[in-house]
Amino acid sequence: MKKYTTLAALLGFFISAFWMVLGFILFNAPNGRIADLYYLGGELLCPIFPVNSAHDIYGPLVNAVLYASVMWMGLQVKAWLQSSRDVSRSPENPN
Fold this sequence. Notes:
It is built from three helices and no strands. The chain is mainly alpha-helical. The protein has one domain. α1 runs antiparallel to α2.
């Protein structure tokens, strides 16, 4: 579980860092399809990270914590569902 949570945190950090670098590259891009895709992708993949404050290092860190916490909660729910399924199939439970 720790491995998956760490991988999710690294993924969140690098996705946010990629959007930050892309923001520097597209800084003077004219309004159009590419700029719209950039803002839409940033809003979908980095919901906490504001696109117009690309100089802030806390954005990738917060995004990494967000990705890791979502992965951790998902793994907790998966473990809970598996344990409840195992309890319902136990020999003591005739149902």
